[in-house]
Design brief:
Layout (H helix, E strand, L loop, with lengths): L3 E4 L5 E4 L17 E2 L2 E5 L20 E4 L1 H4 L22 E2 L2 E2 L24 E5 L5 E13 L9 E2 L4 E2 L1 E8 L5 E2 L3 E2 L6 H13 L7 H15 L1 E9 L9 E12 L16 E8 L10 H12 L4
The structure holds 5-O-phosphono-beta-D-ribofuranose.
Length: 306
């Protein structure tokens, strides 16, 4: 599919660019790798050449694991559809308000009657700590500004003369890793709304702001977020992924080009974030899941140093 523009109900205009499926995943498989938030659960080893479902892997015995927090039946989770006489979700479509479509295309339903990870084996069956069977949809706001000195001049990398870009990174409470302040798309929610909500909650702590502060933040966010550039749409190499549940995202870049809007905000970590900062972008950064790829793509698009 080529590039196209969409208009949402909030008249936000985004340029959409479609991206390809990753060839493999690395953060959700490994030897001696325990599952996030439960070090008693060890992933069954999946070497590079056994990731693909097309390659036979005799003796592949992934552990079947779904966290108690998911099995207890919160609103954000599906029921265990593998139990007999359980109503089946409508896979590969919008099922009521739940979007069960994958950005990667049509996914396969496996021999246990549940979706099969489109990238390949992970060494864990079940849902792990993800709520949905199949794709779990998220949205990632990549908010950027140019790095400036005291005179407000854009700073450059002296070795290649390219301007240095910064983005708002949050530190995740669960793994301690730095990440884009993304979050899950609520059922029926527009991505443009998720992007603003998650950025406000995690990077500006709007959940604890006063009414006046919230109004000011909302106005500035509306101005910046009304023009976004789609960077990525698809599978996320997330450490929580399993053979039957995986993360997908739509990542948008919002660049405060002249540094006069969000570039001047006081950042405050909130919700699931324990830290927040403007972070210099370069090839050395280490980030959660496949977020480094999205940041690299953003730097390329804006002609920034990498
Ligand atoms: C990642 O998990 C997505 O890219 C997004 O940043 C994040 C959403 O999950 P939570 O932060 O809500 O746990 O895969």
């Amino acid at each position: 599919m080529g590039n196209q523009s969409i208009k949402t109900a909030t008249t936000t205009t985004f340029r959409i660019i479609h991206t390809k499926m990753p060839k493999t995943h690395t953060k959700c498989r490994g030897t001696n790798l325990s599952y996030p938030r439960n070090d008693k659960i060890l992933r069954f080893p999946v070497p590079d050449n056994k990731v693909s479902w097309d390659t036979p892997y005799t003796g592949y015995k992934p552990v079947d694991y779904t966290a108690d927090s998911v099995l207890s039946g919160p609103v954000w989770a599906d029921i265990d559809v593998r139990k007999p006489r359980t109503p089946q979700p409508r896979w590969n479509t919008v099922d009521g308000k739940i979007d069960r479509q994958s950005h990667t295309g049509h996914y396969v339903i496996d021999e246990f009657g549940v979706p099969r990870n489109p990238v390949g084996r992970t060494g864990v069956r079940g849902r792990g700590c993800l709520g949905r069977w199949g794709p779990n949809h998220a949205a990632d706001p990549i908010v950027t500004r140019w790095k400036r000195n005291e005179k407000f001049e854009v700073m450059k990398n002296t070795s290649n003369n390219k301007p240095v870009l910064q983005f708002v990174a949050i530190q995740r409470r669960d793994t301690g890793e730095w990440a884009i302040p993304g979050g899950m798309v609520d059922p029926g929610e527009q991505i443009s709304v998720t992007l603003k909500r998650e950025f406000g909650e995690e990077a500006l702590n709007t959940l604890e702001s006063s009414k006046d502060e919230k109004e000011d933040i909302t106005r500035k966010l509306n101005e910046l977020f009304c023009r976004g550039e789609e960077i990525y749409r698809g599978y996320v190499d997330d450490p929580r992924n399993t053979d039957n549940s995986w993360m997908e995202t739509v990542a948008f870049n919002f660049n405060d080009d002249d540094g006069t809007s969000v570039g001047k905000f006081n950042l405050h970590a909130g919700d699931d974030a324990v830290g927040v900062k403007w972070t210099d972008i370069n090839s050395e950064i280490k980030l959660y899941a496949s977020h480094k790829n999205f940041i690299h793509e953003t730097a390329k698009r804006l002609g920034a140093d990498w």
